[in-house]
Amino acid sequence: MKKKTTLKFGAIAGLLLSSSAHADVKVQFIEGAPKDLFVITNVGECDWGARQLKIDFSDSSGGLIFDVTGSGAGIEVFQSFEVTSGAGRLLEEPKASDGDQIVSLDMSGLGLGETIEFTTDVDDTNGTREITVTNGEIDGTTVSVFIDGKTYSAKMDAYAEVLITASNCDA
Q1: Average pLDDT for residues 78-104, to the nearest whole number?
Q2: What's the pLDDT score for residue 18?
């Protein structure tokens, strides 16, 4: 009986050890006044090399848009993009025009546990209070990571966050 237990344990341990480590990223949206905050965190098991990350509001429940200028599609208060943490991890400042629904971040890399944070103003176009984005209005926002010709995507939930398991750490 002891032999079987040892073999089973050995097989399970071998499977656990042979599974590849993941390059995961967590993206959070935090509604704020006057600025909304995005937090991008490497929560995986390895450092990242160069990657592109895209936030796309096209399928968001609230019909969200970036409100980055005083004239255009946004409502009342606007805020341009401001990288508040991890600027050294971006190849350039993210760019979006007023009313855009997509922004891309070209990253030079992101170490394990490191974050990139940026503020801007996000408005909804389908709600009753267009200057405030509730968590439910960001539901359906797609976040994509592009790595070595592959795309890994997931939709934000009503809690305004998403976890993308991009690939194994070898990618």
Answers
A1: 91
A2: 43
Q: Which residue has the higher pLDDT, 144 or 157?
A: 144
At 15 the pLDDT is 41
pLDDT > 60? residue 133? yes
Helix/strand/coil (H/E/C) assignment for every residue in the chain: CHHHHHHHHHHHHHHHHHCCCEEEEEEEEECCCCCEEEEEEECCCCCECCEEEEEECCCCCCCCEECCCCCCCCCCCCCCCEEEECHHHECCCCCCCCCCCEEEEEECCECCCCEEEEEECEECCCCCCCCCCCHHHHCCCEEEEEECCEEEEEECCCCCEEEEEEEECCC
Q: Which residue has the tokens 């009986």?
A: 1
User: How many other C-beta atoms can be found within 10 angstroms of the C-beta atom of residue 121?
Assistant: 25
> Which residues face 42 on adjacent strands?
25
Whether the pLDDT of residue 36 is over 60: the answer is yes
Classify burial at 131, counting beta carbons within 10 Å of its beta carbon; exposed 0-12, middle 13-18, buried 19 or more.
middle
pTM over 0.90: no
Asked if 86 and 94 touch (Cβ cutoff 8 Å), the reply is no
Burial label for 51, CB within 10 Å (0-12, 13-18, 19+), is: buried
